[in-house]
């Protein structure tokens, strides 16, 4: 197998480490979701048309986690962003309105999150050695 990789550009978004990178749905264009130790999650454009790093940041989710964001995930259509943190918290953000809901349940830092849209589950993993599946529903009756 022959695989060729080449760096297209170096995009400096955060002053601290990026903990995770996730591709967003293709319907949103060439974008990624970043989780950072600076307590922010970023939606960043990978478009070659933008000149510098600051113009590539489409949206920043910030000021709600008390410690570093360790992972982030998005809903299938990209309208919700889920962040998990070393503060033991899960936050679900509405991508456009920037409203959010906060959840907890782990005893230590939450290190990973995934979303399974087939069975409406958000699953988190933690330094406490546990994983927690959470059922979700978006919409008018969900409170979100």
From TrEMBL:
<keyword id="KW-0853">WD repeat</keyword>
<dbReference type="InterPro" id="IPR001680">
    <property type="entry name" value="WD40_rpt"/>
</dbReference>
<dbReference type="GO" id="GO:0000027">
    <property type="term" value="P:ribosomal large subunit assembly"/>
</dbReference>
<protein>
    <submittedName>
        <fullName>Uncharacterized protein</fullName>
    </submittedName>
</protein>
<feature type="repeat" description="WD">
    <location>
        <begin position="103"/>
        <end position="129"/>
    </location>
</feature>
<keyword id="KW-0539">Nucleus</keyword>
<keyword id="KW-0677">Repeat</keyword>
<dbReference type="GO" id="GO:0005730">
    <property type="term" value="C:nucleolus"/>
</dbReference>
<feature type="repeat" description="WD">
    <location>
        <begin position="62"/>
        <end position="94"/>
    </location>
</feature>
<dbReference type="InterPro" id="IPR015943">
    <property type="entry name" value="WD40/YVTN_repeat-like_dom_sf"/>
</dbReference>
<dbReference type="InterPro" id="IPR036322">
    <property type="entry name" value="WD40_repeat_dom_sf"/>
</dbReference>
<dbReference type="Pfam" id="PF00400">
    <property type="entry name" value="WD40"/>
</dbReference>
């Amino acid at each position: 197998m022959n695989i060729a990789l080449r760096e297209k550009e170096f995009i400096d978004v955060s002053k601290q480490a990026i903990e995770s990178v996730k591709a967003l749905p293709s319907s949103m264009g060439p974008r990624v979701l970043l989780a950072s130790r600076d307590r922010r999650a970023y939606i960043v454009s990978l478009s070659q048309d933008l000149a510098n790093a600051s113009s590539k940041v489409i949206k920043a989710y910030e000021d709600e986690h008390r410690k570093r964001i360790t992972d982030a995930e998005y809903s299938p259509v990209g309208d919700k962003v889920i962040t998990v943190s070393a503060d033991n918290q899960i936050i679900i953000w509405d991508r456009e309105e920037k409203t959010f809901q906060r959840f907890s349940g782990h005893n230590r830092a939450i290190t990973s999150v995934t979303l399974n849209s087939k069975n409406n589950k958000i699953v988190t993993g933690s330094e406490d050695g546990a994983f927690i599946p959470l059922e979700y529903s978006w919409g008018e009756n969900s409170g979100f």
